[in-house]
Each structure stands twice: as C-alpha cells, then as structure tokens.
Design goal:
heterotrimer; B: alpha/beta; five-stranded parallel beta sheet; about 15% strand; C: alpha+beta; Enolase-like, domain 1; Cytochrome-c3 Hydrogenase, chain B; 16 helices; globular
C-alpha cells in the first residue's frame, strides 16, 4: 500500500468518479513547536457515486477506519458526512477523509456500507433513528439509543416540524427553548 | 448521637439512572482504603431487597424511570433515599433534554440531597451519616 | 429480537466499569450448555441528548462543559477533541505552551483511568485486595490532579484557544514527586498483574479478538492494539504536543514477543501505557516552552468571533479507551453549533463484543466484557441473547460475578494439588 499525498488522493477521486465528483478541499495546520502538519481532506460526491467512492477508499487503504457518520439538517436537504481515517499506524501520516453526500428531504435513502466495513452498523443505525435517513439493505433495523416507546416520526436532530419539540422537559417556573 | 437501633452494618444499594459515571466513581472511591466507608460499618449490597439506603445518581432517562420505581418498591422499610449529584437534584447540565423524565424526587421521595458535579467522597460520607441518623429516628419512633 | 419460542435467555445485568454499578448495561447471553453461541448488543440507557443540547441551547463555550460530562472517567478526552474541532473549524490559534499543558492533563487522566480499570478487572476475577490496592495507588494521581486543576473529576481546564490554568514553576517539584512514586510502584503492579499464575490462567486465551476482526469492526484503543493493530492517534496524527514527542503505539509483542489478542494482552498494553504516560509527562515538563496559555482571554470577544465564524472541523484524541472523535460545523450568525457529532471510543469497541464473547464460557463474561473497558455512559448498554436451550432463567450480575469468582477458586485449587 503506497502512501499518497493529499493532492494525489483528490486527483484519484476525480479520475475514478468523473462527473459525479462535486468538489473538495484540503485543510492543513501547523502544530506545536516542531510545526508538523495536520491534514484533513473534505470531498463531496453525488449520491449515485457514493458506494463507488467508499470502494475507492477501500482501495487506498485496506480496512479504512470509519469513525462516525455525521448528519446535518440543511432546511430542504440533509447532508451526511462519512468520516474515514486512512494510513493509520504510520507515524504522523494518518489522513482524515470526510466523504460528504447531500440528500433531498423528499428522498432520504442511501445504500449501506456494512458489506465493506462491518463495523459501520452502529453508526448507520444511529443515523436512521436520529435524522430519519433510510439506509437501504441495512442488516439490523432496530433503534440504537432511543427507547422503544419514543414516538415514530420524531427525529431529534431535525430542525423542522419533525424535531423533538414536544418532548422537552421544562422545569416548573422556566420557559422552554424557543424555536424559530 | 445515640445510634442504638442499628446494631449491624448499614447496607447500601447503588443505582445509576443514566449518569455520566462521575458520581459513581466518587461513591466507589469512598469505599477504598483512603476514605474507607467500611470502617463506619457501611457495605454495598447486590440486591435492593437487602438494602437500608438507596444511593441514586443520574438524571432519570426515559428507559430508567420504570426501573427506578421498581427498585424503590422492592426495598423494604425503613429506608432512606440519597440523591447524589446535581443531575439527581434538577437534571444538572442536561435539564432540558428530550429523553429525561423529571429529577429523582418527581419519581420517588428523596431524603438527602448531595449537590456537586461530582461531589467529593467526603460529602458522600456526610450524606450517608445524615441518612443514618434519619433512619435511627424513624426506627426509634416506630419502636416507641 | 424474535422471542416466539421459549428459550434460555440469561438476562445478565452487568455493571459497565465498576463492580457495584448496576443497570447501565444488560447482557442477555445465548448459551448452549456452558458455551456462548450468540450475543446481541443493545444500548440506550444513558442517552441524554447531549448533541441536541449543544445544537439548540448552548453556545460553544458552554458546550465544553457539557462535553466534559459525557463521561466522568474520560472527562478530559471529550473537551480535548471538541476544542480541537472548533479551533480547526474557525482557524483560532493555540499557543505552544497550552498544547503542552493539554498533553500533561490528558496523560494524567490516562494513568487514573488505567488504574481504575486494573482494579475493576481484578475484582471481576475475584482478587478484591488487588482492587483496593489499585485504587489506593490511583489516589496519588487524583491528588495531583486536584493540586493542579482544582478538582478530581470534571477539571474544566480546556477553553477554545488554549487552557484556563497554568502549570507554574512552584508546582513542578510536587509533580515530580508523584511521578517518582509511580515509577517506584510500577514493578509491583507488574508483578501482581502479569506474573501471577491465577491471573494468567483466567485471562490467557480468554476473549480473543483476532487481528482481522479488529480491523473489520473498526476497533480502537487498547482493544485494537492488543490484537496487533498499531492504531494510536497520538502516533498517527499531529495534534497537541504529541507531534513533538514521537509516540510509539504499544502492542503486546513488546513484552512477550507474540500477539494473541486475549484479555492478558490487554492487561499488558494498559500497564505499559501507564509507564509510557509517566515518561510523556516528564518529557513535557522538561520541554515546555514559555508563553501565553490562551489566545483570547476575554470570553465575550471569543463568543463574538465564534458567532461570525463559518466552517467545519474534526477533532480527535486518543482517550484511555480509544479514539474519541468530535465533528463540529459552525454557521455564521448562529449562536449555537450548527452540527455536533460525538463518537465516544466505546462505541467502536462494542461492535466487536459478540466476536469476543462467542465461544467462551459464561463465567468468563465479566472479565471478557470488562477487558474492553466499556464506558457505558459514553455509549449505553448491551444485551446478549441465548437461543439453544428452551428454558427461561435470569441471572443477576451478582450471580454472574459469583460464577466468575468460583471459577478462579476452582483453578487455584487445581494448582495447589
């Protein structure tokens, strides 16, 4: 396995995905006295090329380390970012790769990656219950953190009408959190 | 103080209703040789049916509320409940979360409150002694 | 889970980290006779909606204190990752001296956490006196933390752009005295944990996680390193003062020459890490540069900068249990964080729990489960389900603990004969 520079990695994505590649950015920062570099790469792709991008990361590094899937409610779409780490185990050479996909709210579906990375099952289950994205072909459909009697259709991280506004516990004598 | 009703050790049952574990570690640290609760005759037991004192930590999450009620009912009288940490008193820093169901005294009656995040082991020892005195009074009244 | 037939489901509530902590975790173990055939992990007891609070109620500075209370044991790791994520999202600089102080606090926390774990592991095997010994030794580092920061847990040292309190010249002799104490007591700990025959019999070849499984299930921290995967964020990524210090990930072959991936290897990794942490603190004290500790001391100005800022960042730290990860996105004009995602280390290790437990015996469940050092308030709880035999019975965690202790006594009796 060769260790490529961040620019070469972005190039390889462009070549592999063609027109499905949206944009990318590389963030670098000097750290402490010796001024070593911290690097993180952000790549955004279209939903159709998502599975192909994950397979491409698996080619760059066998068994990439998936940290978590983060999700944001952007109004009429939901942005998911899959946070990977590649080149771990090598001194000061690990790279954070954030693979971003935007899904429109009327079609919140994305394929599972547990066939490539079995350890992704927890974070996929959490994404399903917390923001309401349907993960197609997920091997285990149950809720992860929320209790079983939590109402259906209420997604805690949404900022629209499906958020948990009615379920907040307001102490007597206080006003609740105001929602615009 | 006149501790003459409880000639045996005070048995304590500890329950975590969703806390961050900070208070739980300070409870366990109170049992270790440095603070040594056991020299006062206080022992942690594994079942609420043997307990005299309930040590409850944590803001009560939805999943834990029925369990908290059940454990309170399983503990035989006379008993004392100690709520440890700010989470148990008013929800702590999590007070407006969507997964919490009232602080502990909305679900079971509480006798002693120990503020702090987390409270020091010395504060916990003082709380247990206060609870002991309260138990003594309750037992004394029942006997008399 | 389908519960249509009656099965022997042993519902085993097992305390996560502490022997006496009940009810933050439940294991339903599926067994066939004595051997475990199926495991299921269910979490949810400690869900307090922290990320939601950070996105809807708190400003970023308040969220630091919220992040501290994700877990009381690793209460330095979460703020460390969080402030790094915010600094990378907004471009706020950190003075060099602050980076070194952050590392000193983080390494002190690692010592305290590993000693806590060592005591719990000893208790699960049945050596209560070792539990008390380990926690007594731990009190030294708790005193040191109180001396430097003012509190034993929840130390509130981190601020966006630096640290809040300094380590001054007058404090150095006291710190060095504590470090000498740990160096002197380390050999005793090593003898008690690594060279005792009963400990070896209870932990060798128990709870094995093969290297390939550790990679597939994205394990992190000592769990992964004990299986031979040299993943350590301090070694791999440039952050804090670790970038200047050339840390090497510790794997069990440094002591024994081979990697098995069982509970004994995890004990080796954690004990050697305590030694490594003491050395790291000493090097930091020797190399610490002078200067400021905070880029922006006035909180009102800091909040104004954060309100205007726009960007996203990730922050990672090697917590005692593994990689702690925070992702933060800020949007200009909003006072709260726009997006906040926390990934605590136990989250990654719990997925490999079934693989570790299957094939073992019930009496080994406490020690095998405790060996990944689960911090359940970071995650939640677990359930293991049994399917083979057709009877229903319930084992409480005291009964499970009793089974584990009885196995130890049996093995010890065999040794004496």
């Amino acid at each position: 396995m060769k260790i490529l520079s961040p620019e070469k990695i972005v190039e390889s994505f462009k070549i592999c995905l063609g027109s499905d590649f949206i944009d990318s950015s590389i963030y670098q920062r000097e750290v402490a006295v010796k001024k070593n570099l911290f690097t993180s790469i952000w790549i955004r792709v279209k939903r159709e090329a998502f599975k192909k991008s994950v397979e491409h990361i698996c080619k760059l590094q066998e068994y990439p380390h998936l940290s978590v899937i983060s999700s944001s409610d952007l109004g009429d779409s939901v942005a998911l970012i899959y946070h990977f780490t590649i080149y771990y185990g090598h001194h000061l050479k690990a790279l954070s790769v954030g693979l971003g996909v935007t899904l429109p709210k009327n079609d919140l579906k994305i394929p599972t990656i547990t066939d490539l990375i079995p350890g992704a099952i927890f974070t996929e289950r959490e994404t399903q219950e917390m923001i309401g994205v349907e993960i197609v072909d997920i091997p285990d459909n149950r809720r992860l953190f929320l209790p079983e009697d939590f109402p259906e259709g209420v997604y805690p991280w949404r900022k629209d009408e499906k958020g948990p506004h009615g379920m907040l516990r307001v102490l007597p004598g206080r006003e609740g959190i105001k929602n615009e | 103080m006149g501790l003459n009703s409880f000639k045996r050790a005070l048995w304590v049952y500890h329950l975590n209703t969703g806390s961050c574990n900070g208070c739980d570690i300070e409870i366990l640290a109170a049992l270790t040789p440095r603070y040594d609760l056991e020299r006062l005759g206080i022992v942690l037991v594994g079942s609420p049916r043997h307990a005299d004192v309930l040590l409850v930590t944590g803001p009560v999450t939805r999943q834990m509320a029925p369990r908290l009620k059940r454990i309170y009912e399983q503990t035989p009288d006379p008993k004392v409940v100690i709520a440890i940490g700010s989470c148990g008193i008013e929800g702590g820093v999590f007070y407006e979360s969507y997964n919490l169901v009232g602080p502990i005294d909305q679900i079971i009656p509480v006798d002693v409150y120990v503020p702090g995040c987390p409270p020091r082991p010395e504060a916990i020892i003082e709380a247990v002694v206060k609870a002991w005195v309260k138990l003594e009074k309750a037992a004394g009244q029942k006997v008399a | 889970m389908s519960e249509t037939q009656t099965k022997t489901s042993y519902t085993i509530p097992i305390g996560p980290v502490h022997p006496a902590v009940h009810e933050a975790i439940r294991l339903d173990v599926s067994v066939e006779g004595e051997e475990i055939v199926d495991v299921d992990v269910v979490v949810g007891q400690v869900h307090r909606g922290i990320e939601w609070l950070g996105m809807n109620r708190n400003n970023p500075v308040q969220s630091i204190y919220l992040a501290e209370r994700v877990c009381g044991i690793c209460s330095t790791s979460h703020p460390f990752s969080f402030v790094q994520a915010v600094e990378r999202a907004t471009g706020i600089e950190v003075p060099e001296r602050a980076e070194y102080i952050r590392v000193i606090i983080a390494e002190m926390e690692r010592i305290h956490s590993h000693l806590l774990w060592a005591g719990v592991a000893a208790h699960e095997i049945g050596f209560d006196s070792v539990f008390y010994l380990a926690w007594r030794v731990r009190e030294e580092i708790m005193d040191l933390m109180e001396y430097i920061t003012g509190n034993r847990n929840s130390k509130a040292m981190f601020q966006i752009g630096g640290v809040r309190r300094d380590v001054t010249e007058e404090q150095l002799p006291r710190i060095r005295k504590s470090l000498e104490y740990y160096k002197s007591v380390f050999n005793q700990l090593k003898t008690v944990f690594l060279e005792d025959i009963t400990v070896r019999m209870r932990t060798r070849n128990v709870g094995i996680l093969k290297t390939e499984d550790a990679l597939k299930f994205t394990a992190a921290g000592p769990t992964a390193r004990a299986s031979g995967v040299p993943k350590d964020v301090r070694q791999d990524e440039a952050y804090g003062a670790y970038a200047d210090l050339d840390i090497k990930a510790i794997t069990p072959d440094m002591l024994t020459g081979t990697v098995v991936g069982d509970v004994y290897d995890r004990i080796i990794v954690r004990l050697l890490e305590v030694k490594q942490s003491v050395e790291i603190i000493e090097r930091c004290l020797a190399q610490m540069p002078p200067g400021d500790i905070l880029t922006e001391p006035k909180i009102a100005k800091l909040l104004a900068t954060l309100k205007k800022a726009d960007g996203e960042g990730v922050g990672r730290h090697e917590a005692p249990r593994g990689e702690c990860f925070h992702y933060v996105r800020l949007q200009g004009g909003e006072e709260t964080l726009a997006t906040w995602k926390i990934r605590a280390p136990t989250y990654a290790n719990l997925v490999s729990m079934p693989t570790i437990l299957i094939g073992g015996q019930i009496a080994d469940v406490p020690i095998a489960f405790a060996s990944i050092d689960p911090c359940i308030s970071c995650t939640n709880r677990a359930i293991v389900v049994d399917t083979k035999t057709k009877r229903k019975s319930v084992l409480t965690d005291t009964e499970l603990h009793k089974l584990s202790v009885e196995k130890t006594r049996r093995l010890q009796a065999k040794l004496d004969n």
